[in-house]
User: Fold this.
Amino acid sequence: MEAIDIFSYFLLLLLLLSGVKVVTTSNVIHAAIFLVFTLATTAVLFILLSAEFVALVLILVYIGAVIVLFLFGVMITRAPLGPNAELDNDQNKLMAAVISLSIFGIFTYILLQTFDSTVVISEGTSTKLLGEILLSRFVFPFELVSFVLLGALIGGITLARKDNALMDEDQI
Amino acid sequence: MSFSTELLIKVLVVLATAPVMALGLTLLEVKGSAWMQRRPGPLHVGLRGFIFPLATAAKYLQKETIIPNDVDEPVFKWAPAWVIAAVVGLFTIIPLSPTLIVRDLELGVFFLLAISSISTIGVLTAGWSSANKFSLMGGLRAAGQLIAYELPLILSVVGVVIQAETMSTVGIVEKQIEFGFPFVIAGQGIAFIIFMIAATAEMMRTPFDMPIGESELTMGFFTEYSGIRFLIFYISEYINLFVMCAIASTLFLGGYHVPLLPTEWVNFYGPLVLIGKTFLLAFILIAIRWSFPRFREDQLQTLAWKVLIPLSLLNIMATAIMKVVF
Assistant:
């Protein structure tokens, strides 16, 4: 076993542990920080797979924006500072087990079907190539995704400012 | 030289450089502000005032660490680590010469934007876990400000990337040498100003220091910190100042290059040139800090969303059009 294999197994263990901690801890902020660890470990795994762009996107978008918005959301709502017992939900344990096991089964099946005993050696994808493909072959899905984002943006603004008209009337 | 020895040497060099640069900038700030305000202390007392930053560092090192009762201890204790890790990590892509760089990443500029966004988590968790209203307000203001000003920071750099056709920091400097002019003259002047404003806001320095605002929030998100942890926040502010100015001079001012000097000697004069440019930019920011009053929160948000972001989008559009035309 080479050093990189040991490192990968160590990372996978870390990923598993921090992932479990995200859902078991009863403190919202701790959960968010464990989620940061999970995402950072994933980013390191992507770097080991020489997919630098994906790794940096994970850090920029998920750690830098999504987690920050989580923390921001927790801070502007009246969340308690300490642990919160209401975060635990004991209902439907059976249902949860069935769903998670079936998702695990489906992913395992797909991965084994596709990659079983095939060794993929990649030199990594250059970001330049990625950009070119994204703006030539996949330009239609790319634009479509930006429309989805635009829709989400407008939807968010409409939901957040629903009482705007009423407020204006009151003020006049 | 094996990979691990090289890595060890690089890490040690960065860990030695970062505090030295922070100390240099602290001196510049203390003496610059004293000079602007005619304060005798930092100018004349104790070896012409040079002893003060060292005395400050020694004072904080031997201070007792006070942790209030209600804080969320692990989060509180580790919050400064996020900030300093993000700031020191950025040293990876600062080129002192084409070869004197920790790693010339293909995605250098993207790395800068990704890693610098990590320090926001440190600021937010520090504000939250302190169990203090001032800290929470400071953390909230910091979050709002950092989210708002990250966009113009990213968008202003995009213009440079389009013009240089590369994201590697060495590549960007080489492009400027090839072009003959630094990018601040050759088309990215507006982007440079936007970058400097957004970087000042990201560093939370006056006039963008609402999150710290000592007249209303004591010390903002690090009110409850003392001793070594306060020192870490304090030092990382100056390391961040160095890193941001070094990156601005790399992207816009030609980095380690000066005209007329022989390029084969760049390994000798490159570091001095880059550090000189960096300290010049830092001096401008320090002069701004000591001459301008603080922005109000709504003015601060208006400036980001209504002025800087549209301007940087226009800059990207103009750069792209020029790129296609010429």
Notes: DSSP finds 13 helices and no strands in chain B. The longest helix of chain B spans residues 3-37. The radius of gyration of chain B is 20 Å. Residues 68-325 of chain B form one domain.
